[in-house]
Amino acid sequence: MLVTRPAPVTERVLDACPRLRLVAVCAGSPAGVDLDAAKTRDVRVCHAAGCDAAAAAEHTLGLMLAVLRRLPWAGTTPRTTSGPGWSWRTCPWGWSATGPSATGSPGCSAPSAPG
What we know:
Number of helices: 5
Radius of gyration: 26 Å
Largest sheet: 3 strands, parallel
Strand content: 5-15%
Shape: elongated
Number of strands: 5
Distance between the termini: 69 Å
Structural class: alpha/beta
């Protein structure tokens, strides 16, 4: 048995292991495995389909929250905005899920009512 991350398992690798019967790829697809060469040598290939689904979902939610709070711009805004008077409209900490929110954020003023 050969257990691998996404790495090339070529015909040359399979030739070097004549007693090999199983290649297990720890990834969502067996993209690096020469499937035709494995089939001709009667080597079964399996992979962990969906193994990274939870991590992908967590990363997606993290990116959504980062954009909602304008975190990608938080590092540049203090250098490009001069003087006092930041408001929730220009604050890099942006919005909460319920609306504008900058209360308690460093360098930002509390949001005022629209109007």
